[in-house]
Amino acid sequence: MRKYISLLLVLILPFSVHVHAAEASALFESLRHKVLSVKDYTADVKMNINVTYMRIPQLKGTLYFKSPNKMRLERNGGLSILPKKNINLTLSNLIPTGNVTVIEVGTAMIGTKKVRVLKVIPEDEKSDIILTKMWVDEHDLLALRTETTTRNDGTVIMDLEYANYMSYGLPDKVTIYMDLKDYKLPKGVTMDYNNETATQQPKDKKNQKGTIKITYLKYDINKGLSDAIFNKADKE
Amino acid sequence: MIQLLRIELFKIFKRPRTYISFGIVTAITFVIQLAMLSDGKSFVGFALQGINEQFDIHGNILNGYLVAYIILQSLLIHIPLLVALVAGDTLAGEANLGTLRLILTKPISRAQLVMVKFTSSFIYTVLLIVWLAIVALFLSLLLFGKGDMINLKSDAFVMLLQNDVMWRYAAAFIFAVLAMTTIASMSMFLSAFADNSIGPIMSTMGIVVVLTILSNLELPLFNLIKPYLFTTHMIGWKGFFDDPVPYSAIYKSAGVLVLYTIGFITATIFYFNKKDIKS
């Protein structure tokens, strides 16, 4: 009898794992399809950059996005500051494209929501993304958190909050946590005024984290943005 | 007193030397603006390379506000010389011409004469800084346009929104007047000892250069004396371009500069009252 049960388990277990993996892949594919269905958008945004060595006021402006990786912040003649192109501010840039291997690693709670945790590994060895870990709300088909390890820009963690544009998979609030390098200029060059509010340096200078909080006030989705908007940014 | 001040101002603005200062300010400003027009982008690129590794910054970075800041940074080292050209001549110049004795035969006290000469030097300093504001700030805004201003510190990148910059410049220029008034008072103090103006002018420059080097050297020995040097506090105007503005440090710096100014004027009056004037 024991022999039969063991044999049955040996036969069922790989099948069960396969079914689980297939489910996880299907969930990821559905999510990716939803996210990538947004080809472009224009959004009124408020951006708060919180980096140890940067003192930047809240920036208000219009954020333009065009799939796959074009992005521009316009601020009525003011300066726009965005993280380097590799670490784009949209979810679509942090989800691997092409063939991927999806592994489900369990469930977790984000707030009051129970989410499934997936690890996504791109099969393309040249991809800038090495691994993406995603916390997916299966019911609404939304990624509530992503943790993306990139080849050149360290790890980028993104927390997403949804409200009005859930059907497009577009968040209303995004908090991005990114790795940063140290910043220093010689005092002889800057001739600093030795005031009492010197920038507080983190204890671990090599592993500084910066956060960017973006509040999306209003989206215009899939209106067919021209490339000229982004080329203008390159010329500046 | 007013009549005496008018005479002093007439003397200052009758001399061609006075206008050399305004010419020098204009020339240096033009040279920097020309350099920024021709190669400013590579300058900005070099300055921002640490930031550009991680962030993309777009827009008119090299705008009038940034150019004016660069000009101020370089000019506020040279302006003490231009202030000394006039303030160092106030008493020593009269002694050299042999008119000091003649003036003192009039019914005014020596202290009054020192105060009038100091006031005339102060008015000249204010006009020089106003001229600097016109050519460095307003002309730069005309040439390079407006925009958000960036300020690079040794350990921080500060960005100021364009509608939040003008008041900072106004405050910075007022602080610059205070700093240059300290230089004027020191130059006049040195002028009281001399019988020709070259000595006080050169001495003023020598003191400013040596103390500026001490203020900027990062050595523990000098760190002890830095807070007491007026050159450490002369760059307090930069504080207005920080966020948040370090008001307590600026007030402290302004206080130190006022104390130095009062000290120099008091010492000048004290010495000048006792001086045996032979010419």
Structure in words:
The complex is a heterodimer of chains A (236) and B (279). Chain A has helices at 2-36, 91-94, 187-190, 228-235; strands spanning 40-50, 54-55, 59-66, 70-74, 80-83, 100-110, 113-122, 129-137, 142-150, 155-161, 173-180, 208-221. Chain A is of the alpha+beta class and 236 residues long. The longest helix of chain A is centred in the first third of the chain and has 35 residues, at 2-36. The N and C termini of chain A lie far apart (77 Å). Chain A has four helices and twelve strands. Residues 196-200 of chain A have low confidence and may be disordered. A ten-stranded antiparallel β-sheet of chain A has the order 4-3-1-12-11-10-9-8-7-6. Helix content of chain A is 22%, strand content 42%. Chain B is elongated and about 70 Å long. Chain B has helices at 2-14, 16-47, 49-52, 64-87, 92-97, 100-104, 110-144, 166-191, 198-216, 220-225, 230-234, 247-274, and strands at 55-58, 149-152, 157-160. A two-stranded antiparallel sheet of chain B has the order 2-3. Chain B has 279 residues and is mostly helical. In chain B, a hairpin with a 4-residue loop joins strand 2 and strand 3 (157-160). Helix content of chain B is 73%, strand content 4%. In chain B, helix 7 (110-144) runs antiparallel to helix 12 and helix 8 (166-191) crosses helix 9 (198-216). At the A-B interface, strand 2, strand 5 and helix 3 of A face strand 1, strand 3 and helix 12 of B.
